[in-house]
Predict the structure of Xyloglucan endotransglucosylase/hydrolase.
Amino acid sequence: MGSFYMDCKMKVLISIMLLWFASSALAINTKTLAFREAYSKLFGHHNIHRSANDHHVRLLLDRSSGSGFISSDMYQYGLFSASIKLPSDYTAGVVVAFYTSNGDVFEKTHDELDFEFLGNIKGKEWRVQTNIYGNGSTSRGREERYFMPFDPTKEFHRYSILWTNETIIFYIDQTPIREVRRTEAMGGDYPSKPMSLYATIWDASNWATSGGKYKVNYKYGPFTSEFRDLSLVGCRVDPIQMLPTSSNNCTAANLDLMATGLSVMTPKKRKAMQTFRENFMSYSACYDTLRYPEKLPECEIVEAEKRLFKENGHLKFRRHRRQRSSRARIRTAVNRSLGQQWVM
């Protein structure tokens, strides 16, 4: 009976994951930009390599420095998206980040929305972390951490941050993995000031892998992260005056944003998000009752998720071991069903 139940459960998971991968193959309905059109170098200029057509950027980390780029404008809400491929082999201590922030302008009250990719020792998986800060609320981190249902070093996958005045949705390919809806109780913790987009690679040996146990080993370098299909859809604003840089900018930008369809959370998307979270999330601040005895105001507790986590917000250990085996089985089955279309 137990074996029959597991086989049925596996078939359901595989079916849902197949739908997820099929939707992932669809392009996001928005214009991509050349680097020169919307971005500029931020640091480690010698480690930023642009393709001949200016639509593909490589960021390197070596002994001399990391590297990064920034959007040329700041945006009041929008869609920030790129297809990214991560470094392979030994990547402990390496962090690749794709995020929005206004820390250069509002040093003490900055807002931030993060995708952070955390490297690992050889043979271990990359993890991706999302986080949210509003109005300088860095003491109230809202981290969530996930494994990925594919190998992010083999092929490009699209990562997108959708930010409106009411909701924040993080996407991997076409699948939403996290939604934060604005509540009155959040107050200034909800990001609301204009932000720039950043993409960086850097040495985070002091915390990124097993709490700093494993450091960057430069004999495996240089570490290369690749970005393409760069997309920015949003209202460009003057960060000081908080006004649009052109009279029709916000109207046109909002129409473009709605046209992507990413701001609408359909029942199908919500089901896909829940399936992803139940199978690939490894930490959530919403379930970390040791850190937050009183839950964060935007947290919507889902019992199907809650039962999977310990009071410190991390996966229950025994489930973690089973989950790695389950993920491997799902990956193998999905690859077979897709005829090796997806490298996972």
About this structure: Confidence is low (pLDDT under 50) at residues 1-6, 22-26, 318-322, 337-344. The first strand starts at residue 39 and ends at 43. The two ends are 31 Å apart (CA to CA).
